[in-house]
Amino acid sequence: ITPSATSSKILIQANFSGMQGDYGGGFDIYRDSTFISQPTGYSSRTPIHTSAYKGENNATNSYSASILDSPSSTSSITYAVYVNALSNTQYYVNRSHDDTDTADRPRTIATITVMEIGA
After folding, report:
1. How confident is the model at residue 73 (pLDDT cuts 50, 70, 90)?
2. Can you spell out the DSSP letters for the chain?
């Protein structure tokens, strides 16, 4: 997205399903290379925007994240969802861990909606 004014705010909404590989990690929203979904007062806890852990290989979780960003820019900006893993494990988006080709292993879609507000 390319904001039309430096005073514009950008609303980011991400929705996806998948499998999280550990219970302490999760998913974060970034603006280019900047982590923008960082909570305040997290101390020694891991800053995560959305997280849901299930240990079953055939399970998927629903994840959603929304944030209102103030980039103060009129340059092109890329927003993305990144994995924040605490261990050497795997994360999956739009599929289960084992991804067996059977009716009980879902395939889903991911969406990221980005819109300029208050230009």
Report:
1. very high
2. ---SSTT-EEEEEEEEEEE-SSSS-EEEEEETTEE--PPSS-TTS---SB------TT--EEEEEEEEE-----S---EEEEEE-SSS---EESS-SS--SSTTS-----EEEEEEE--
